[in-house]
Amino acid sequence: MGIAITLHLLSVVVWVGGMFFAYLALRPALAGHEVLVRARLWAAVFQRFFTWVWAAIVVLLVTGFYMIFTAFGGFRQTPLYVHVMLGLGILMMLLFAHMFFAPYKRLRNSVAANDEATAKKAMNQIRLVIAINLILGLIVIITAMTGTFSLYD
Predict the structure, then answer these.
(1) What residue segments make up the domains of the chain, in order of their start?
(2) Contact present, 5 and 70 (Cβ < 8 Å)
């Protein structure tokens, strides 16, 4: 169980921490640069980061379901806060998949074609999904912590 919890937490740190860095540090630092310069950099950053996010998603699902069935004996006995975490986590995964297969694909194609208008639109769509997922991720973390500690009251 300790290994599952550790891998689960590390995956959360990679995904949510990466979004925090991208949204609140890298995005503002790039604000003064030309659209295609930003687009090229974002495409390169996302190529690397999204590989880690896909890995984090796999680890989160495997370890999460493992803990549900090992620690709680299945969904029926699982506390509400775990159901909330799972639901929000799946929503985050679906939003990420949409972003990966739609706006991110358009971003990569627009960079290859030097299409500034499409790159700008794709970056705005990605920014919105990352903002939503960052908020959801922070809510999941708060839910995990408050839910976990309420067990000991």
Answers:
(1) 2-150
(2) no
Structure tokens, 152: 């000991």
pTM of the model: 0.93
pLDDT tens for the chain, residues 1 to 153? 999 999 999 999 999 999 999 999 999 999 999 999 999 999 999 999 999 999 999 999 999 999 999 999 999 999 999 999 999 999 999 999 999 999 999 999 999 999 999 999 999 999 999 999 999 999 999 999 998 777 554
Quickly name the fold that domain 2-150 has.
Answer: Four Helix Bundle (Hemerythrin (Met), subunit A) (1.20.120)
DSSP 79: -
Q: How far is CA 63 from CA 1, 2, 3, 11, 34, in A?
A: 9, 10, 9, 10, 42
Concatenated DSSP letters of 99-146: HHHTHHHHHHHHHHHT-HHHHHHHHHHHHHHHHHHHHHHHHHHHHHHH
